[in-house]
Amino acid sequence: MYKRYIAKFPKGASFEEAQYRAAIIPVFMGKFEEGWKLVEAFIKAHPRSQYVEDAKYRLMICKYAANLFDEVLADVAKWEKDHPGGMMEPEVLCLKGDCLSAQLQTEAAAEAYEKAVKTAWTDEVLNYAQNEASKLLQKLGRTDRLSKMWEDFIEQKPDHQNVVVGIYWISKAKSKDGKVDEAKQIIVSQLKRSLNESKNESVEMLLQQLSQLCWKRPRPKVTTNNHDAATPVAQDGKEPPAGDQPAPPAEPPPPRRGMPWPSSRKSSSLLT
């Protein structure tokens, strides 16, 4: 479609847009080497185009696919300088986090994802950034930052569908800090509001988390028998029953972060 328009209307009002959309199609198809050449050629031909901000991000995606993490990080730094507060900032920050995570720079990667959470304006990017940040902050043992990230989000968007997922992570962080009763209360309060939301699969995740917290008992004392074999005994003197522990709740699966179709600031009846 775009190639036909380019050939038929070389001076058309949407010629530049058609050129750009034709250039990024290979990127969406996973043909990164071909897309790299086409997008790079577009940027050189139209350095002041309204699509350059988006084009540079697509070019970074191609380099990321080639495992050129250092080069991508350098491009990210330049992009942030050239396009502060740009529309693609959340996506660029997530890509930065991906590169840093691939290089095992966990702390820096978590910070990039946290920034993306604050600036994301599509649910797809928001979900990805929240999930990646949560996993890395948990890995770092930074339950304080994990809780704050989700608490700030819930305060800003109390009706968002991700609130239930946020409650899961907050309660998990509280539990890690030894605040089990507080974690239970947070879950119960949310369940009272969410139990009727049958379409929200995260409610089941909260119920599993609550059951696990309620099952937890004080750490058992350890005694030894005549054969010096250590046998765990609960504080009430009884052996803990085998097989009664519920399976731990599954971690919320990381949503697949795609590459949103570039939105034009100018509407085009031909190309939309």
Mind explaining what this structure looks like?
The protein is elongated. The chain has a two-stranded antiparallel ribbon with strand order 1-2. A hairpin with a 5-residue loop joins strand 1 and strand 2 (230-233). It has helices at 2-8, 15-28, 32-45, 52-65, 69-82, 89-102, 106-119, 123-140, 143-156, 163-176, 180-194, 202-215; strands at residues 221-224, 230-233. Residues 226-240, 242-259 and 263-272 have low confidence and may be disordered. Helix 7 (106-119) packs antiparallel against helix 8, helix 10 runs antiparallel to helix 11 (180-194) and helix 11 runs antiparallel to helix 12 (202-215). 32% of the residues are buried. With 272 residues, the chain is mainly α. The longest helix is centred in the middle third of the chain and has 18 residues, at 123-140. The termini are close together.
Quick rundown:
This protein has helices at 2-8, 15-28, 32-45, 52-65, 69-82, 89-102, 106-119, 123-140, 143-156, 163-176, 180-194, 202-215, and strands at 221-224, 230-233. It has 272 residues and is mainly alpha-helical.
List strands and helices in order, with pairings.
Blueprint: H1 2-8, H2 15-28, H3 32-45, H4 52-65, H5 69-82, H6 89-102, H7 106-119, H8 123-140, H9 143-156, H10 163-176, H11 180-194, H12 202-215, E1 221-224, E2 230-233
Antiparallel strand pairs: 1-2
